[in-house]
Every structure is written in C-alpha cells, then in structure tokens.
Fold Uma2 family endonuclease.
Amino acid sequence: MIRPVEERYRTVRDLFPELRIERINGRIVVNEPGTWQHNTVIAQLLAQLAPVVAERRWEIWPNITVHLGDEADRYVPDLTVVPQNPVMETDEAVRGASTLLLVDVVSAGNAYDDHVIKPMGYAPAGVPLYLVVDPFQRLLKLHSRPEAGGYACETVEPVGAPLPLPAPWDCLLDTTRLLNL
C-alpha cells in the first residue's frame, strides 16, 4: 500500500530531524546543511536584519516549517521572520500569513524550486514578503503583495544595488555585502 505523501513526509522528517525536510510539488526534498558560502550569505543577511528585528521585538527563526494550507506543500526557508506571538499551525509550523519575511538562498539543486515553485505556494498562503538570494546569478528577488494567483510585485536587484524592503520593514538592504564571497 502506498502511503499518502503527508504521512511519508512526516516519517522522513521524524527520521532526520537535523535536516530540512520539505514537501515541494508532491516531492519529499531532503536538504543537507548549507555550504560555508551559503551560511556566510545567511550570516551577512542576519547582521543587517537583526537590528530592525530586535527594535520591533520580532523573532528570526532559522528552521521552521511554513504552513501553507492543509493540503498544500510544506516549505522550510533558510530564514523566517515572525512578529511576537505568530499564529502557529503546530509546534513545528507557523502559518504563512503570520510571517513578516521568508528568505531562501539558492543552492545548486534548488534554483527552480526557490525561483518558481515556492513563490506560487507562498503567495496564496498570504506570505507578505519572500526574498530569494541567488549567488549564482548574483541577484536578489523580492516577492511582495501576495494574491491568490501569485505575487503582484517582484523586485529584482543585482548585487551592489540597495534593495528596499516595504512595510512593515521600511528599510534598505545593502546587497554589496551579501555576496562578496
């Protein structure tokens, strides 16, 4: 008997709690820990976001599942920023509409998922901002203004150009420091 995808997803997640396990388009994706370059990009991004997050008493979660709906995929972004007391689906999953910013740094094997699949899942779930940092193309792509069919706004900036984060952030990211590896 073939077990439903959700049951297989939970089994794999329980077997490998140290890894990021996602359900993407019906596939169970096991993400190994990032390379030093991947982690350096995350650390540089954290250094810029942390002062704003601390001032507003938000929280940064590096390993949490984003609940997109009962029958939807399960994504685990590299960084999730949430307000105080976000709405949780389970102890391991925050509701997409209860986030402030999700960030993924593209790795060699996940470019299509990060650029195409995940925005299509995040927007209908009400995720307000989804940032994709692509070290291979040397660009940042910010998806904003979620709608049922996708994001109404997509801002793409090359490394070196400031990237404005809209409300409730109202700040600029200095992209020159993000990808200087």
Summary: The chain has one domain: 34-177. The chain has a mean pLDDT of 88.
